[in-house]
Amino acid sequence: MAEIEFILNHQKIVSETDPSLRLLDYLRNTLAMSGTKEGCGEGECGACSVLLDGKVVNSCMVPMANVAGHEVTTIEGFRETKRYKILEQAFVQCGAVQCGFCTPGMIIASESLLRQNPHPSESEIREALSGNLCRCTGYNMIVDAVKKASEDGDGLW
Amino acid sequence: MSDINKTIERVDAREKISGIAKYVDDLKMEGEIYAKTIRATIAKGKITDISVPPLPEGYATVGVKDIPGKNFVKIIFDDQPVFTESEVTYFGEPIMLLVGPDKAVLRKIANEIRIAYKEEKPNLEWDDPMISYHFSKGDGDQPFQTASKTFSDVYITGYQEQAYLETQGLIGYPEGNRIVITGSMQCPYYIKNALINCLGCKDDMVRVIQQTVGGAFGGKEEFPSLMACQLAVAVYKMKKPVRLIYDRKEDMPVTTKRHPSRIRLEAAINKKNEITAIRAAVGLDGGANAGLSGVVLQRAMIASSGAYTFPNMDVTGRVYRTNTVPNGAFRGFGAPQMLFSIEMFIGHVAKFLGLDPFEFRMKYLAKQGDKTSTSGTFRDPIIMPELIGKAMKESDYLRKAQIYSAGNGYQGIGMSFFLHGCGFTGSGEATHIKARVRLEKDENDNVRILIAAVDMGQGIRTTMRKLVASILEIPMEKVIFDLPDTDFVPDSGPTVASRTMMIVGGLVDRCARKLKEKWLANEKQILEENFQQPEYVKWDEEKLAGDAYPAYSWGVNIVEVEIDKATCQVKPIGIWSEYDLGHAIDEMVIKGQCDGGIAQGVAYGYLEVMEQKDGRLRQKNLTDYIIPTAVDMPPTMSGVIDNPFALGPYGAKGAGELTLVGGAPAIAKAIEMAIKRNVTEIPVTPEKIRELIDNGRN
Predict the structure, then answer these.
(1) I need a labelling partner for B61 at 20 to 30 A (CA). Which of B291, B320, B358, B365 fits?
(2) pTM for this model (two decimals)
(3) What is the ipTM of this complex?
(4) Is B19's Cβ below 8 Å from some Cβ in A?
(5) Nearest C-alpha in B relative to A32
């Protein structure tokens, strides 16, 4: 066990925890925050995406030791922002949601992209989302949604 | 709501986007314990000894001896045990559950359990048929005797994994002296009936409740019944809530897959270079037990004429038992294997005869009034020529096909024609399912839809409410559709077979119209509707003859590809689809089905590889079983042409499976054009393309 201090959704957390514990388990089990999903546990599917210092990571591949001193944002934190509302509306309007299991992770990956590149091209969107698997949509409606969000949220990113 | 197909906001979109929606793994129960499955580590043999270390307090094993009822999972045959007693028939077969409060302790104990086997050589040959069917149309034999020539080939398809993003998971808990199972599922009543059989209890002693489902695609049709039985026995023994949630590397090797197939097709050809008869011999690898394989086989066999009409047919089919994981339901259910085969075959016949493949295929296209493969009748208008014309125009098919066929630029464009029978095969709806739906109106005129159909992502929580609101001319907010709970919903059947909107929605439609007629404001009213087979649908279950389906949906897929000359990697660069699915209940929901279905269908044809070696699946996670990413999928255009079905709600027919079944032949044909070689096997991987270029037939 070790004392780990980090910022989670703008709040300081000091936790006595196993440094090898996966961030995903810490979020889902220790904190009972269930918006971050587990799809594969091997860093392939992106359902467990969170932002680490503003960039998308797979929380199933991040041990708590690597979180110390950093800033983590999950869907629970991000959904309180203006940018989230723009993305949410675009996902709704473009029909980007079916079973929904990949969706919080897709939103996090989209935020990470738009922070770095507020006006991405279609191929840049596809590239940025290629770490997030979706089995329902065939991706086109998700790509459309991110494109729409980048237009509707012009100036926010 | 004047026009039903106009898109409305999906009712569960915002709760899913924000992460608020609860899937089974997001639920926690007071006092719950975990279950871990102990599995066979050989593919075939006998268990000679099981040694379990002394267990700490609160830990227990749950196995065959704890089952109060029968040790099989009720589905069609009685051949799938809940826990295997001594015979091991596939690698990963469940032997018992280990249950207790701490997951880490469970893992440690599991590692200390010793199981001794008398191992036998697994049978991986297709030589042990467990199910056989045969039917014929016209005279399937004589045309071969008088044929001026014949042509035959064998078509091979591989496994496909559903790869739902949410793995299999259920939670069981006691409720008084009853047992409740809740979680990720397609068919609450399949589970309920399996529980009654396994627990040996009365109908009212078990309850099944669906939670939000993170994708299913057939993978959660029959498999959850096995897990539910195991879990119910654990709850019965422990009297506590128990969670059984697989991680991906447990889920992928032991859950049901799409059946690998080997299909031999033979055409009798007369002097005028016309096909006079088709012979089809279908082989499916069923895996270790029958499960739903017989029904999958029937659907494959019935699809053996594809979107065409042949005057004479002889169709045989077998499901072979092998010592591999049992195969089962997957969107398309036997049709993808057959449609790949017949679509490639008819092109190969044309090439063999030196005829233009497009004209040859158009000549045999099924028309209204034609006899189906099972000698039933295509009663409704068939608008394939319109669908084909529209798809060809939008994709610029003819021009591209001409250029690519002549060139050697490793580019190709392929077009598939297909149909999909809507609802259960034959008399299944009338004799086996007997669907019932209920609408309940309260004193405030809120109308509750009570059906057992599950929203697994396909959007029926939205479309069913929209349907009822539209008929009753009341706001969507006045229509309630909760997640199915067998304590409240009647058995409207499983969420499978492209039946939910056409069959269940059709009943809901009729029920809503009755309610509208009898509407008494501010009074409680309950109305029910039961399935009745349309008079004209006649089916002989013994002979597999007659109308296999009450209606058919139709489609055209066009896929354009580029192939890297050095690596043989295939890149789809455009996809166009046109469908006749009757009438869309919501355009955006249908677009979601179109785009997602074809992604799975195309990937089945070129990308998704799953193989077994010595009876063990080699792919265990999404790291080695590759499904398409956003980069793999090209822009996808899809459209529908209205062709309302009289008995469907607002004219709707089946849509869920139709969008998958034509993907593989379309891309395989595109690859054929690009490499100028016949493709007879999917997935067409870079290795196979290299082999075809070096040694294949042109």
Answers:
(1) B291
(2) 0.98
(3) 0.99
(4) yes
(5) B26
